[in-house]
Structure formats: C-alpha cells, structure tokens
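Task: fold both queries, return tokens.
Query 1:
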Amino acid sequence: MKHTEPQSFLGKLYKYRTYLLGLVILVVGIASIVGVQAHQKNAAENATTSLAEAKGPTPHEITVQQKRLKHKLNRYLKSVTSDGTASVSFYNLGPTAGSSAAKSQTTRQFYKQGKLATSANAHTPMVSASTYKLFIAAYLFHQNHLGYYDWTLTEKEGFQRMIVNSENDFAEGVLDTYGLTTLDDFIASEGWYTPTFVANQASVTTAYSLTLLLKKLARQQAPFNHLHDQQWLLSLMRKQIYRTGIPAGAATAKKGTVAADKVGFLGDTNNDAAIVTLPNGQRYVLVIMTHGHGQSGFSGFPRMAEITTHIQKMMYDPSIVQGLNR
C-alpha cells in the first residue's frame, strides 16, 4: 500500500492560491464600491448644505422682515412723538466696508442703505437751537470749494469752538457777514427746509432736513465731498462736549458705539443730530428734536438718550440676522 504525506497548512494555501487571491480581490472591490458610494453621499450632502448656506434667505424673506422691523420702529416713533413735543428721524447707512458686519451677505442685504429708514413728525419745523451750525459748516465748505473763503488759523479755531463747544460767536459772525437770505438760499439749494433764518426769530429746521445733511456728510457728498473737510467735521463732532443725549444712549445700547453729533439747546429745546457707528461697523443717522415737558438746560437729554437706546437695540438686535440665516 502506498502512503501519502499529509500536506502542510502553507502547502494548502499555495495549492488554493488562485481561489484565495480572487476572494481577496472580490472583498476589496466590494469595500471600495461601498466606500465610494458613502463618499459620494457625504459630498452630495455637504454640497447641498453649503449651497443652502451660500444662498441664505431669499430676497422675499429679507423684504418681509425689513417691513416688519420698519413697521415696529415706526410704531415706536409715533408713540414718542404723539404729543407733538418731539420729532425723530432714523436712517440706516449700512455697514462700513471691510467691517465685521459687512462680511455677512445677509447682513449687507438686510441693512442695505435706507431700507429701514423711517421717521415721525420729522417734517414739522422746530426750533433748531445750535444744530443750525451744521448748515453754517456746509455753507463754509461750499464757499471754500468755490474759492470764496479761506481757512485762516483764526477761522479754524472759531469753527472748532462752534462745533466742539457749541459757542455762538463764530456762527453769528458768518450770518452777519453773508446775511440771512444768502444762507437760506444756500440751504434751499440743497433741498433742506427754509426759511431757517428769520431776523429777530429763533432759527428753525426739521429733523428730516438735518437727516439729509448728515446723510451727505456720512457719504462724503457735496458740500462735504472733500475728504479733508468731511473727516475734520466728523472728528470735531466726535469730540463735542455735550454727550448725554444720543452718544450716551447709543453707548448704553452697545458698549463701544461712537456718535459724531451736534447738539442744540435753547430754553426748553433740546436737540441732537448724529451719525452713529456700532463696534461691528453698522452705521445710522439719528435726529431727535424735543421741547416741552418742562425742559430747561439739558434736562431733555436723558429723554433723547432713552429714545436712542430703544431704537438701536430694536434695529440692531443680532437675533434678527441669525433668524434669517436659519
């Protein structure tokens, strides 16, 4: 009888190597197919998510929310002006270029310049008090651009005192030199309320006219179209010494908010007209004109501060854009 040596394990593997190799290839192939399909599924899901994020809210969704917020602000402004002793004008300027607010497409669209602007009692003429000095500034810049006015050291010092300390001598000197009618003609040419200056009467203007002026200043438009003039006036307005109105209210709403403003106070009149910049780069124009309520000196400034705080918190609540991005 013939005996056969038992095969070793390695020998058996060698004998069936072809079958084993095929099995390995099959397993690897199946695993590869499953992996590719999973990758494609994840990629598709990520692409869909990215596309949704990139698209953000639709224009219709943004418009609807803008109308809601604007209506809400208008209701509030009507409530604080209902007794006729106040006028308020709000105009959103949109975020400054390169700011953190400007980096969000949704934020840029929602706060697009002027889309949230509204006012109450803003076309009613009110005693301007020293806010009229912004019209003086505009007129002098215009005259300088035409070559009819030179900024001597004396004029520069007087202009600075007029804006920072709200002193009257420089502004009254301009009115005496050029005449009330000349100043009113210039104001009318800009589309602002006239007559502002009437002999032997307190100067008057509207919150809307001051808003139009501040819009031009913020946007570097004539008569503030020379960068040096614009920056000089804004720097003086940021340094003006009466800070308990709009500047205080804006800072209360958001720490670090800066207001470049011009105040006015005369008898029971307390006014403030400002360009406000939030830490994230959002900007807006706000004009508040008040009288009555037994006001004297600066007693109406806390009233303006309270209105400012309420408006800024309402209009620039971060949850508004967050809600749109959901």
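Query 1 returned. Query 2:
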Amino acid sequence: MTLLELIRAAIKEDMPHGDVTTESLALKPRPGRARLKAKEDIVLSGAMAFEQSMQALEPNARVKWHFEEGDEVLKNQIICTIEGDLVQILKAERVALNFLGHLSGIATHTRRFVKEIAGTKTKILDTRKTTPAFRELEKKAVVHGGGVNHRMNLSDAILIKDNHISVMGGIKQAITRVREHSQLPIEVEARTLEEVKEAVEMKAQRLLLDNMDNETLKKALAMIPAEIETEASGNMNLQRVRSVAEIGVNYISVGALTHSAPCADVSLVFQWED
C-alpha cells in the first residue's frame, strides 16, 4: 500500500461521511496559519505523511519545515508552519498528527537505544513487529532515529528460526535444505550453546542469539569466529542494552522500537484570520 493510499484510508476512517461538526458550523473558507509544536523533546519523523495528509484535503496548503527528519526537536519548538484554508486543515488535523506522532515516537524511542550504546561497535536493529501496512514508514522512522533496518520482509533474507528448526529436526538439516534451494546468506536463530556450536559448524553467516542472559552470550561469542556476524535478541530494554553491547555483539534487535514506542506529543495551534 502506498503512502497516498494509507492517507486516503485514514481520512475515510476518520470521516466516512464528512466532518459533521465542522460542516454543521457552515464555515466559509478561512485563510490562516497553523503551527506544529513539540510538547516534549522528540526526534522528527513522518513529515511527508503529515504534509500529504494536509494536502489531501487542502491542496493549496503550504508547509514550511523548520527541521528535517532525524533532527532532535526540543519541547515548545515549532516544527513547521502551515498556511491555507484552516477549515480544511482542521479536518485533516487528527490524521496528520496521528501519522507524525506515531512515527516520531518510533524515531525518538530508537534514538534512546542508539544513545545508550554509544561508543560500542554494536548497531540497533528493528524487527518485523510492525503495524500492518505501516512497515515501510515505521522502518524509515527507525532509520531517522539512528537505528538500522533488519530484513524488510520475508522475501528479503533467510532467517532460520526455532519453528523452522523444529519442523526440520535440527539446525544442520534446516541449513542443508535451504542451501539446496538458495544461494542467499543464512542467518540462524540459536537458543542454546549447543545450537550455537551446530550453526558455527554449518558455517552460517549470522547467528541470532535469542533470549540468552549476558553470561551465556559471553560464552556464545567465545565460540563464534569473527567472520560470523552476531545478533542478540529477546527482552532488550534500555536498562540492559548497554551491557549486551559491551559484550561485543554486532547487532541488537529490539522489537519494542516499533511495537511499543509511545506516541510523540505534538499539537497544532491555529491562527485564524478575520
């Protein structure tokens, strides 16, 4: 689904039969200005979705951005100004704010994780735990926050997970079968040191070390040669992520970047003209 299709669906959801409140006021077009204000410190993402949501109902809306996506915006700073018919902008307000607040929330949450591991070699990855149909937007927000995208979808890369291993009867059998049908690099999920040993012997290109405590992670890394990339996953939070990065993994994947990020607090302030 394209961004424009998402916006149209969101507007249809918000006013399937028009905005009965605004339309009952029988307002004539009212030119004016609105200012988008940060009500807390945020990292900006979702600017295009915000702007196109406005222009879907007010094609002549002019948006002037004072920050770029990925910039840190401080509380009370003005993110952008919008000029146009404020009656139409009022109708688009909630949809536009929902997009920008949600995506800036992801970028802001990601930036917290990135800052927490500053100075280490580790990079923060996202996952596929995204809102249906919003994956491209949400993964772009992760990048705006300083994170790195994992595979975009199941077509992008091979990741042999626990259920694949279970159905095939083991890591060796799963890797062997995949190599019969694909030349793509293989990442394998390992939950125990025994599985780490097996994946190393099968020369997987990356190991996803899943739900291991820090002591087990240290033992796992001691078993893995430098040419095999490592990714730690499972129960990663801001309190723990630094200690995991200092163990020396290449990546830490954090589902919470997209499935648990709080919405950024922003508001639209209207300046009506007589």
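Both queries returned. Flag for query 2: The chain has a mean pLDDT of 97.
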